[in-house]
Specification:
Elements: E1 16-19, H1 21-33, E2 44-50, E3 58-62, H2 65-71, E4 77-82, H3 83-86, H4 91-103, H5 124-141
Parallel strand pairs: 2-4
Antiparallel strand pairs: 1-2, 3-4
Helix pairs in contact: 4-5
């Protein structure tokens, strides 16, 4: 008998994904307004999921180079928002969440994802904070 094994609860509920045109529109607006020129909005797709067990508000999925080569397609990313957490946020908080996810996209738009590195030049959270600061500057200019 394993003394340290965690008990897992299994449920019959499955994660459901549906297209999220409202999220796509919001991503397009953020990229345009903040002049995030390395992001090709035509290759960003948005989905809303329900019944996920994660505590995250959103996730980003990249299409790796091997999949790109195999399928003969260009790099692409999927922004998934988790309905149970994301939908109740204010518009400003939704934008912050989306900016966090967009920060995972490298400047070469290769299909790879940038990790949460906290030190040195590649401080992920510093990049997120600077994008959010720029967002608030643009909001105040209106």
């Amino acid at each position: 008998m394993r003394r340290f094994a965690k008990a897992r609860k299994f449920s019959n509920s499955r994660i459901n994904w549906v297209g999220a045109p409202d999220v796509k529109k919001r991503v397009n607006a953020l990229v345009k307004n903040l002049e995030i020129d390395w992001i090709k909005t035509s290759r960003i797709f948005a989905y809303r999921s329900t019944a996920s067990k994660t505590r995250a508000y959103a996730r980003i999925w990249g299409l790796s180079s091997l999949w790109q080569r195999t399928l003969g397609v260009a790099p692409a990313y999927i922004v998934e928002v988790l309905s149970e957490h994301y939908d109740d946020l204010s518009d400003t908080e939704k934008d912050k969440v989306l900016l966090h996810e967009l920060t995972h996209i490298p400047k070469n738009f290769s299909g790879a994802l940038l990790p949460h590195i906290r030190r040195g030049k590649r401080n992920f959270h510093r990049k997120v904070d600077s994008l959010i600061d720029l967002y608030f500057q643009k909001m105040n200019e209106r």
